Amino acid sequence: MGMRTLLVRGMLAGLAAAAVALLIAWIYGEPQVGHAIAFEEAQHAAHGHDHGDEAEVVSRTVQRTTGLITALAFYGVAIGGLFSIAFAFAYGRLGALGARATAALVAAAGFVAIELVPFLKYPATPPAVGNPETIGSRTALYFGMMALGVLATAAAVIVARRLVPRFGAWNAVTATVVAYVVLLGVVYRVTPRPEAIAEGFPSRVLWDFRIASLGLQLALWSTLGLLFGYLTERSVTRARAPRAVPAKV
Amino acid sequence: MAPSTASPAAPARPAAPVGVPLRDIVPWAVLALVLGAVLIYFVGAEQGATSLISGTWVHEFTHDGRHLLGFPCH
């Protein structure tokens, strides 16, 4: 199994995953972004900020289409590439798990580490939510939580692998997951939360926006894991098949 | 690190599939990490908390994706 093939496959699967995420974003996310911007503008108008028509750098139409497509595509390719590296480290090193199961497991772990861990403490915010003056600290906290998610997940996998021979797979994984959750619970309790929700911001828009954001990420990671697993399983089976053409690394 | 988990003592269980040797992964891992970090930075943070390029175009262009992917935007 060549690393180059895996990396290219990961980036392409990531791109396909981004396309699925784009659909979720358009159907469930964009309406909420629209509501939030309408709220923001109504507030500006009410406070007499005459805006002076602050020159629009990028129009809403471009933000909703080209901008969103580009952002998701870049993100999908980046995540897909990193996913393929994580898969290469995991494949053949997690007991007898095959390509499909390894890909599914790595995708689930990636979703938890990169999306769920930061999301539970610092959930996605629609426009008009969040104080612009705290963007620096909020960004640092968000990326810090993401880094913690990645490190804790990698540590959990290493620890669980070491515990398996002594306690068996079920007990080893259960103990590791419990320790992981307790660690996060402590971190969540002690980290600051510099969130500012504008007064009167519709809670339903906030909820729907956050669920859309989480759903989009879930769709992205699921597509990535399942598609990559399917393609890799297929190529493994082909390579093992007798009389297979030996070329095509 | 990470020796093969297929122990010869357990012949009844299916052997672990042959993975990619670690030394083959590392250079690709470095490449993917660097490129991935740059992409995620531009999608998630540029012209928000920090700016490498002056102006607000990157921020405004990636605006919806940034919000919907869960990054703090503004």
Automatic annotation (TrEMBL), chain A:
The yes or no answer to whether the keyword Transmembrane is present is yes
Q: What are the protein's UniProt keywords?
A: Membrane, Transmembrane, Transmembrane helix
- Identify the stretch annotated as signal peptide in this record: none
Per its record, how is this protein called by name?
A: CbtA family protein
So which domain of life are we looking at? Bacteria
Q: Return the InterPro entries for the record.
A: CbtA_put
Q: Record's Pfam families?
A: CbtA (PF09490)
**Which regions span the lipid bilayer?**
68-91, 103-120, 140-160, 172-191, 211-231
Asked if the Swiss-Prot or TrEMBL record annotates the protein with the keyword Transmembrane helix, the reply is yes
TrEMBL record, chain B:
Q: Which domain of life is it from?
A: Bacteria
Please give the InterPro entries that the UniProt record associates with this protein: CbtB_put
The UniProt record lists the keyword Transmembrane helix: yes
**Keyword Transmembrane helix listed:** yes
Report the transmembrane regions from the record. 25-44
Keywords in UniProt for this one? Membrane, Transmembrane, Transmembrane helix
| Protein name stated in the entry | CbtB-domain containing protein
Supply the source organism for this entry. Answer: Actinomadura parmotrematis
